Every structure is written in C-alpha cells, then in structure tokens.
Amino acid sequence: MDGSIALLKTSPIIVGDQVDEDRVYFHRMFWTFPPCVEAFCHCKPLVSIDGTHLYGKYGGTLLLAIAQDVNSNILPVAFALVEGENAESWSYFLSNLRRHVTPQEGILVISDRHNGIKAALESPDSGWRPPHAYRAFCIRHVAANFALTFKGQDVRRWLVNAAYAKTEAEFDYWFDIMRSENPAMCDWANRMDYEMWTQHKDGGRRYSHMTTNISECVNSVLKGTRNLPVTSLVKSTYLRFAELFVVRGQTVEAQLGSGHR
To answer: 20-27 long-range CB contacts below 8 Å, 24 or more apart?
Structure first.
C-alpha cells in the first residue's frame, strides 16, 4: 500500500571476532498503514498497548497499539515484531508509534504495569511524558496483581469498584470498606498514583476505558497468524486491514445514504 511505513532493524552477523559484511539477521520491525494514521486523527485521544507471544519456528512478540472511535469501533494503528517485551523493544515500538502515528499532544496510553513499558515511556526523549502524553494502568492487570497478595471472595471486587468510581465520594466508600477489612490493602493501592488507576482522578482522559481489553480483542483476531513467518505475518495484517476498511467504508456510505450525519 502506497505510503505504508515499514521500518526494519537488523543486526550484524559476527563470525569469530569479525563482522560478516555480506549478511545481517532480522532484529525488529515496526509497521503501520496510511488509513490507520489518518483514522487515528478521528479517534479518541488514547491508545491501548499490549504484546502477544508468537509461536512457531521464530518466536518473538508482536506489540500492538489499538485505538477506538466515538462509535466504539476498534482500530489497530501500529504493530511491531520484536524479540520479547523489554525496555529496548518497547522503546523501539513506542518511539516509532509517537513519531509516525500519534504525534498529538495529550495522548493517553493504557497498558499493564510492565517495567519495560514504564522505562520506555519515562525516558526523557520519549515524547510520552506529561504534559505531552499520559499513562494509565489497566485495572484488570492491577486487580490480578492485587489478588495475588490479598485473598478473599470480595477483595478484588472492592478494588475494581474503587477504580471505576466516578466520584470521590463513591471511591471513598469502597476504599473505606477495604480499610476496615485490612488496612494493608489500602497501603498497597496507595503505592500507585491515583490518576494511574482510578477513574475519578483521570482528568477525563480515559473516556471510561479502564482496561486493555480492546487490545486483547485484536489479539484474538490475530490468533491464527501468530505462528507465521515474518513476511506472512505482515502480509496477513495488511489483508485484514484492507478488508476492515472496505467494510467500514461501506457501512459509512450506507449510513450517509440513509440520512445519518
């Protein structure tokens, strides 16, 4: 597709103590398509990022950035194929995402609490630090970590309800229940800044997106491609995008034809 961005990073092959000038091996790749870049301008100013492991001969991890429009249509906007989830691979993905797809000010990134993501976003030259961009945690991942420490039928629900609370009074109600049951639960939660995991302190940036579920919806769609070689994997995303935009275009034309504006 004309205008597609595909950035290939290779590494040299070293034989003994000599660099083989004639050969390199695949290291990482970032790619996106023009309709994705254009469509993101009309989406909510947030991206959900996640990684999914690849199977088959080559392994590796597929990193994704997913957006959503005001009609709740899910839109993958960028991909990267990397060796695994670490600070360097996330930095590679997020720097290219910022440069080529999401240069807008005030973007929110929703993710799990992976240390590699944290390091990449907090790098001084990343372009993802406030006030240029903001970060929020996926509450499902936070609650899963919380449940590893605190056992009980209701403790996870209390934390999730506190996170989803839209007012300070509602948040205090659930937090007081946690405190009365076990003050250590509140101490655990207070190690995170409130704007990172609660809705009532998010400044309106989440648009009610509390999890990375939209990323994992795309992961499930791509499940059949996760054992493909690199070229086939990239081609598969292109073909699925081509089909997606044709269907979306037909839907919009039908809506306009029936008088929708």
So the answer is: 26/230, 27/83
pLDDT in tens, 134-144: 999 999 999 99
φ, ψ dihedrals at 80, nearest 5°: -150, 140
Q: Which pLDDT belongs to residue 71?
A: 83
Pick the CATH number of 5-138+211-257 from 3.90.1170, 1.10.10, 3.30.420, 1.10.3470: 3.30.420
- Encode burial over 199-213: b for 16+ CB neighbours within 10 A, e otherwise: bbebeebbeebbbbe
Q: Which pairs with CB-CB distance under 8 Å and at least 24 residues apart come from 184-190? A: 184/150, 185/146, 185/150, 185/155, 185/158, 185/159, 188/146, 188/149, 188/150, 189/146, 189/159, 189/162
Tokens 């660099």 locate to: 19
Measured CA to CA in angstroms, residue 184 lies from 9, 138, 187, 200 at distances of 46, 21, 5, 22
Cα 127 to Cα 38: distance, rounded to the nearest angstrom: 20
Regions of the chain with pLDDT less than 70 = 216-217, 219-221, 223, 260-261
Cross-sheet strand order for the sheet of 18-32 = 5-15, 18-32, 74-82, 61-68, 46-53, 107-111, 133-137
Cβ contact 178:155 at 8 Å = yes
